[in-house]
Specification:
Pathway: Lipid metabolism. Its EC number is 2.3.1.20. It is found in: Endoplasmic reticulum membrane. This is diacylglycerol O-acyltransferase. The protein has 718 residues and is of the alpha+beta class. Among the domains are: 130 residues, Acyl-CoA Binding Protein (Up-down Bundle); 113 residues, Pleckstrin-homology domain (PH domain)/Phosphotyrosine-binding domain (PTB) (PH-domain like); 135 residues, no CATH class. It is 57% helix and 7% strand. The protein is built from 23 helices and seven strands. The protein has a seven-stranded antiparallel sheet with strand order 4-3-2-1-7-6-5, with helices on one face. A hairpin with a 2-residue loop joins β1 and β2. The longest helix has 38 residues. The chain is elongated.
């Protein structure tokens, strides 16, 4: 039972609606007040998101401003104010308890429609008597009831046009030249339509999709988990449209990105409701064969202003995928020609590489067998940490024994490589695996040492064992799982995915094999002949000769390095992550766009960067060292490890890799100055690529190869 305030308010609304444009003569200001009070009484405070933009018209903005002036007024107070204002018009309205009880919601909506603009109050004058004296349905005959029903249905149909099932921001997937492009737009779901606008402020229609029965909507989870592209969105809303004969839209599927499953489900339900309102898909009218409704020669061809596709006046985003395909075709033809010329000039080096892999010497077998020692250090690390979880174990003794054990995990493989003088191609994988294991064990021991210190100062914890808290986390399963995870930083808990995508995993394995094959082909067929020529040259140490061979190696060495990056950081680490259900897969960022060298070193190898920050940079800062000194120590240690990874397998000690890494320090300062003085400049990016492609990789490869070939003259094998 409505209260007196609501009853009088509805009576006033009905009174104004019935007399609009006739004997209710009021000013435009009064009309604005009526509209604002009605909105405040029915919808509450005006929201900023509902404010019309500059394209909404002066009238709509004036109505919204009048509504906002009543912000904070209670709804009942607004109703009383509305009733008082109508009573003050002197048109004969007196508040009473008797109001029309038929179609109250329709009366309210009719009031909104009546005050849609400032000069349309006369639209309700024709139905004055009908609204004043509602018919008695019990006394109407069948024909009158049918007419009344049709009238009500027509009113509902008119009102449904203005209904919005859902509106908000979504990101739409579009195919571009470089792949998928995700753009955030403002979407609106109305009966029969999904409309896309440039933004909420700029209501420029970018896309209108007719919705009909038969449309399907699927909410798909996204496990990519990256910060860019599709990985930014946790769920996808995939709309599939039914096939129709209509030429209004050629779209068959739309993929939208949403931040939460609840929001995605709401969009799905709204789109399905709008599709039901859209009815059956339209069918193209059949035309008898041989007959046409109009002469096509009279059709207007030029209908609107349009810019050329390649013109700077073109505002729409264009796709240049065809040109990208052309560039790929030209690159493939050029590479094929170079391969043919290379094979005809130098012969097939792949056959020699295959022969080498099948003819290992005794020293090489020792290195292969030494790989079986690596799990021993993992088990010993676990046992030492397990002893450290007891209260009787000495903390200092545990740290010292663990230090010796972890150091031996890297020193023993390095000693075996140096003493056996095995082939660099055999020693390289062993030293790489030993280095990765060493970094993991350092993180494991360091983290548990900090947890042990906190555990010893805390009161005993009661309750069941918790595998994510010390000392329950120290288990053989935990350390083995950590060794399998694609990360160098140990922690007791990691983000995990719910299941393994087998098809996705199989595709990545195939991509890995293809990438490794390309890497071997380029190295053996394009780099090895040049390296052999440089090693056999009489003046191999001449600066001009070195410059010549360095420039020759620049492009193939860059291709090999890019294949290494893609195979290791994108494919192999993602394969490990998928197989172990590891959730955090940000192994690199967009390092190729770096305009400063320090940004490149932070972005291209996230696992190593995280290890250096956590176990080297922050401890140095906590020890009281400044930021500059701590960064220098980080680069120094990184340079030492780069030298170990190259010099130990090659059995040299020229420190080229170390010098190259330390040479990054002045280049970092230079690119920082350039970035500071020239904002948005790409000079730093050019410096990065030039120093990396010409001075860095090929020069180091050439110098190390000449050194190795000189030490193994007469018995050098490729």
């Amino acid at each position: 039972m409505p209260d007196v305030t609501s009853t009088n308010f509805l009576s006033a609304v009905s009174f104004v609606n019935a007399r609009a444009g006739t004997d209710l003569q009021i000013t435009d200001d009064a009309k604005l007040d009526l509209y604002a009070l009605f909105k405040q009484a029915t919808a509450g405070d005006a929201q900023d998101k509902d404010r019309p933009n500059i394209f909404g018209g002066v009238v709509k903005r004036a109505k919204w401003d009048a509504w906002k002036q009543h912000k904070g007024m209670a709804r009942n107070a607004a109703k009383d104010e509305y009733v008082s204002l109508v009573q003050g018009f002197g048109a004969g309205f007196e508040p009473e308890g008797r109001v029309l009880r038929r179609r109250r919601s329709s009366v309210s909506m009719s009031s909104v429609r009546s005050f849609g603009s400032l000069n349309n109050l006369s639209t309700a004058a024709a139905s004055k008597e009908k609204q004043q004296v509602p018919p008695d349905y019990s006394k109407l005959d069948r024909e009158a009831l049918v007419k009344e029903l049709e009238l009500l249905q027509s009113e509902v149909a008119k009102l449904s046009v203005f209904r919005v099932y859902k509106e908000g921001k979504l990101s739409r997937c579009r195919e571009t030249m470089t792949g998928e492009d995700w753009t955030v737009r403002y979407y609106e779901v109305k009966p029969g339509f999904l409309r896309c606008y440039k933004s909420y402020e700029e209501r420029i229609l970018r896309l209108e999709v007719p919705l009909h029965k038969g449309a399907t909507v699927v909410v798909e989870p996204n496990y990519a988990g990256t910060a860019t592209g599709a990985g930014r969105y946790k769920h996808f809303v995939v709309l599939t449209l039914p096939r129709t004969d209509s030429k209004r839209s050629n779209l068959t599927q739309i993929k939208l990105g949403s931040d939460s499953v609840d929001d995605a489900n709401e969009w799905s339900e709204a789109i399905l409701l709008a599709a039901e309102d859209g009815g059956e898909p339209p069918k193209q009218e059949k035309v008898e064969k041989g007959k046409r409704k109009f002469d096509p020669s009279l059709r207007d061809f030029h209908k609107k202003h349009q810019a050329s596709y390649l013109s700077s006046d073109q505002t729409d985003r264009q796709s240049y995928r065809g040109f990208a395909n052309l560039i790929l075709v030209v690159a493939m033809v050029g590479c094929l020609r170079n391969i043919v010329d290379n094979v005809s000039k130098y012969g097939n080096f792949l056959t020699q590489a295959l022969k080498f892999s099948l003819t290992l010497e005794s020293n090489d077998y020792i290195i292969v067998a030494a790989s079986a020692l690596l799990p021993f250090f993992i088990v010993s690390t676990y046992l030492i940490e397990k002893v450290g979880t007891t209260t009787w174990a000495s903390v200092s003794a545990t740290k010292f024994i663990q230090f010796v054990n972890v150091s031996a995990s890297l020193l023993v493989p390095c000693y075996l490589s140096h003493s056996t003088q095995a082939n660099p191609a055999v020693c390289g994988p062993l030293i790489f695996l030993a280095t990765v294991m060493f970094l993991k064990l350092v993180s494991y021991a360091h983290t548990n040492a900090v947890l042990r210190e906190r555990w010893l100062t805390m009161p005993p914890r009661e309750g069941p064992p918790n595998p994510t808290s010390y000392p329950d986390n120290v288990s053989l399963f935990d350390i083995v799982r950590f060794m399998a995870f694609p990360t160098l930083c140990y922690q007791t808990n990691y983000p995990r995915t719910p299941f393994v995508r087998k098809k996705w995993l199989a595709k990545r394995l195939i991509e890995l094999l293809i990438t490794l094959f390309i890497q071997v082909v380029v190295f053996q067929q394009f780099m090895m002949p040049v390296l052999l020529q440089s090693a056999q040259a009489k003046n191999s140490e001449d600066p001009m000769t070195i410059t010549k061979y360095t420039l020759t190696l620049a492009i193939p060495s860059l291709l090999v390095w890019l294949c290494m990056f893609y195979a290791l950081f994108h494919l192999w680490l993602n394969i490990l992550a998928e197989a172990t259900c590891f959730g955090d897969r940000q192994f690199y960022k967009a390092w190729w766009n770096a305009t400063k060298l320090d940004v490149y070193w932070r972005d291209w190898n996230i696992p190593v960067h995280a290890w250096l920050v956590r176990h080297l940079f922050m401890p140095c800062m906590n020890a009281g060292l400044g930021k500059s000194v701590s960064m220098f120590i980080v680069f120094f240690v990184s340079a030492v490890f780069h030298e170990v990874l190259v010099s130990v397998p090659c059995h040299t000690s020229n420190w080229y890799a170390f010098a190259g890494m330390m040479g990054q320090v002045p280049l970092i300062a230079l690119t920082n100055v350039i970035e500071k003085r020239f904002k948005e400049s790409q000079v730093g990016n050019f410096i990065f690529w030039l120093s990396f492609c010409i001075v860095g990789q090929p020069l180091c490869i050439l110098l190390y190869f000449i050194e190795v070939a000189g030490k193994n003259s007469g018995s050098f094998r490729v």
